[in-house]
Amino acid sequence: MRKIGFIGCGHMAKALIKGLQKNSSYIISGHDRNEANLAWLEHESIAQQSLENICTESDIVVICVRPKDMYDLCVSMNGVIRDDIKIVSVAAGVTLENLKTALPGRRIYRAMPNIGAKDNLGITSIFSSEQDDEILEIFNFLGKAFRVDNEEKINLHTSLIGSGPAFYFEIINEFENRLDELLPNNVSKRDITLLFLTSLISAIKNGENLEDLIASIKSKGGTTEAGLNLLYNENFIKIFSDAIDAAKNRATELSMD
Hints:
Layout: E1 2-7, H1 11-20, E2 26-31, H2 35-43, E3 47-48, H3 51-57, E4 60-63, H4 70-78, E5 86-89, H5 96-102, E6 107-112, E7 122-127, H6 133-141, E8 143-147, H7 152-179, H8 189-204, H9 210-217, H10 223-233, H11 236-254
Parallel strand pairs: 1-2, 1-4, 2-3, 4-5, 5-6, 7-8
Antiparallel strand pairs: 6-7
Helix pairs in contact: 7-11
């Protein structure tokens, strides 16, 4: 049994905990100062511990606090955390070098998961000077994990994989808004959305070329071509890519705050 302690139990920690709860070989505990997060831990039957207990009784500590709170937390941890504990930071923008400076002599890993971890469908990049299969194994249990050899790729992961779902959710939200114009009251728009998205997944799961799939729907002079032409004319593809870059640049800025 491996003891995993979470410091900070906000949205990302909750997603990781929900995914890890499906593995009986992990004993999970949490520490937080927010009353709502503490109530969530109680509801999920997750043991609540003091910062000192998390830092002395865990095998692995996962830090899920906001980047601006990281330095003060590390100062508090420094005097109590055991030398052999593995530390995983999921804070965007906080570099491995800064973490090692704040927590000298520790075994530290940067991991950038995404919200899909709660359903064990997460995608995680890991960067560290340590080569440790256990950390990789934990995040592979939560979906798919891989090591990156350049820390800059963590910032790209933050924007593309971490922030990306919100961009898609925004599009899906507008899709559902337009469904209100179409569906009778006795038909659930969420059911239609799920069926629609499942059909897209089914279309690509065997490795079909996306351009071929687009061509199979589009006919010359037809409705699909009209809609696509508008997207192309409005530079939708560039806008989407620019949004990824904006999030990536913010991750870089956080590393310098």
